[in-house]
Amino acid sequence: MSDGISRRSILTAASAALATACGQPAARPPGTSASRPFEGRSLTIFVYTGIWETWYRQLFVPAFEAETGAKVIVDAGWWDALPKLKIAPPDQPPFDLMLTDPTQFYPAMRDGLLGKINLANVPNAKRFAPKVLDAPVFKDGWGVPHISSPMALAWDSESIPGGLKSWGDLLESPARGSFTVYGSYYMGLYTFAAIKAAREGKAGQARQMLENDLDGVLNYAKENRDAVRYWWNATPDAVQAFLGKNVVAGSVHGNGLLAPMRDKKPLEFVIPEKDRAYVQLMWVMPKGSKNKDVAEAALNHITGSTFQWNLAAKSGELATHLPEASEQIGQQDKLWGRVYPSSAADWAGIQYYPYELYDKHDKKISDFWNREVLRKG
C-alpha cells in the first residue's frame, strides 16, 4: 500500500479491536507470553487436507505453541480418521483433538471411541452463534460444532451467461447432461432431493422428501443419474471440470469457488435460499488421550475471537462462528459474505444436511447409491 501500512497490520489491528469488544484480551505476539503452561508437552490434531490443513498450520500451530509451549503435530486426511481411531490401542489414540463430521461422529460415539469434553474449560465457545451450538454434540458435551461450506449451484458464466436460478434448472438445457455432482451421497443425494422438490413445485421441501419418501428420492436419483456428466470426489476436481469446460453447471461446495472467482475465472454461483444445506463439522476428543487438558486449551484457543477472526479474514475461504466478526468480514469481503453467514438472518437460517436421517439409514442409502446411481446397477 502507498502509505506503507500492510494488510497484515490492518488485520491485526482489527483482530485486536474485535477481541477487546468481545471481552477477550488481544493475543500476545509470539514469544511474549507470560506463561507457557504446557512446555514440553505435545498435542496431535487431525484436520482435513486442503484449506483446513493450510490455515491451521499457518494460524493455529505457531500461535498456540507460542502461547502454551506445547508442540503441535498436525495429522491431515479425510475420512481416514475413524479407521485410524478404531485400530489404535484404547489408551493410545492417534490424535488428541479431531475435526470430523456427523458421518464419523455418530459411529465413533456409539463405538465408545470418544471422550466428553469439559466445556467449562472452553468458555470461548459460548460466544458462537446460538444456531451453531444448537446441536447434540455440544449440548451433550462431546465437542464444539462448526459450520463449513453450503451447497452451491454453480455454472460456467461463459456457457450460461444468463445464469441459473433453481436446482431444477440442472435438468434443463444446457445443464442437463453436462453437470457435476459430488459422488458422496450426503451431498449428492441431497442435490437430487433439491432438484426433485424444485421441479415438482415444492422448493424448500427437500429434507421432508428425504424423511417421508426416502425410496422415492433414491429412485429419482437413479432415474436421472445419466443427466450427470461428472461425479467429483474432491472440490478441486469439480472446479477443474468447470475450468476445463468438461461441465457447465453443478452442485459444489461454495467455499471451493472463492479462490477461482477471485482469480477472475468464468464461474458464478448462487446458494438458493430454499433447501439450503451447510456442512456441519465438529471438534471432538478421542477417548484415552493423555493430553486432555492441552486439547481443551487448544479448543478454547480455536473458539476464541482472535483465532476466529483470523481464520476467516486471513484465509478468505473458511468461516467464523462469531456473529459480530462475520458481519464485519462480510462487509469487507462481499464474495466471502455470499458463501458464509454474515447477518442475523443468515445465522437464523442455518440448515444442515439431514445427517441424523443418513446415520439411521446409512447402509441402505450407501448400498443403493453405490450400486444403482454411481455404478448404474
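The record above closes out task 2.4. Task 2.5 opens with a second protein, given below.
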Amino acid sequence: MPELRKDPVSDRWVIISTERGKRPADFKVEKEAEKTGFCPFCEGNEDKTPREIISIRKPGTLPDKPGWLVRVTANKFPALIIEGDVNRKGQGMLDMMSGIGAHEVIVETPEHVMHLGDMPVEQIEKVLWAYKQRLIDLEKDKRFRYILVFKNYGSQAGASLAHPHSQLIATPITPRYVKMELTNSRLYFQQKERCIFCDLKEQELGSGERIISENEYYVAFCPFASRFPFEIWLLPRKHYAGFQELPDEERSQLAIMMKDTLSRLKVTLNNPPYNYVLHTAPNPTPRAGRPDYWGTIGYDYHWHIEIIPRLTMMAGFEWGSGLYINPTSPEQAAKFLRDAIV
C-alpha cells in the first residue's frame, strides 16, 4: 500500500508509491554521447575563462596558466552580479531588489572526462578545500545572506559542459528550501535543546535499514521521506552548523565517503545524471533591527549534502500540490546501494 511520509526537517510530505516499486533496472538512463569540441575548462584554455579567484597548482606554475589541479573562477554567464548594492524596495505588496550576488565555477580537475566517484581521494579533498575557502571568503560580504554550493552532473541534471565542475551562488536572501530547514531546526532545538539532524542521524544508525555506508566521521543514508528514488543524505557525525567549520583532518574522510557514495550510485544505476547540494548555515552577520536572527544557529543547524539522482520527472501533480511521488522506497534503495560492489 502507498504511504504518505513526513520529513521531520522540512515538514514536507512525500508519497512513497510502493505499488510502483521500481528497482534500479527499471530506471532507463540514456547514455549520453560524449561531447567533443572546444572546452573552456580544459587545461591550456585559461584565457577563455574569467581570471581565477583561487587555485591549487603544481609548484612553479603561474595563475591563469596551465599547471593547476583545481581552479575557481567567476561564472562567465552569471545568474547574479557581484557589483552594486542590494537596493531593497517594494511596489505596494510586491518586493524586489537588485540582482546582486556571486556566481562561481569550481573546475574540479584538468581531466576533461572524469566522474567524481572515479577521482583519487586526494583530488576530491582539493575540491572540498576550494568549497571551504570560498565559503569563508564570501560570507565576509554583508550583502550575501546565503551561499549554496551545488553540482550538476549530466545534461539531464542541468550541466551545460561535460568537464567536471561544480558551482556556487551567493544570494542576498535565504532560499526558501533552506529557510524551511533552518526554521524547523530552530523550533526543534527550542523544544528539546537538541539538534534535529543529530537526532535523525542517531535514529537512522540505530535502525540501519536506510543506511548506505558510514565511517568514523560521516554517515550516508536514504532519508525516511525521500522525495526522489535513491535520494541520499550525507551527514557529519559531529555537530557542525557550517561547512566552514570542518577541520582539515576530517576532509579526507569526507572525500572517502563522497567517492564511495557516488561510486555506488554509478554502479547501481548505470552512471545516472545527478545533482548534489551542500546545505550549510547562513551568513552569521548580524542584521539591523534583528540582532538575534538565527541566534542559535550554532546549536540547532547541521550542515549536510543532499544527492539527487535524476531518474524521474516532476509532472502536474507534483507542481500543483508540492507533494513528491517516489516510486522506490528508501529502504529498498538503501539496500541496493549498500549491496553494490565498488
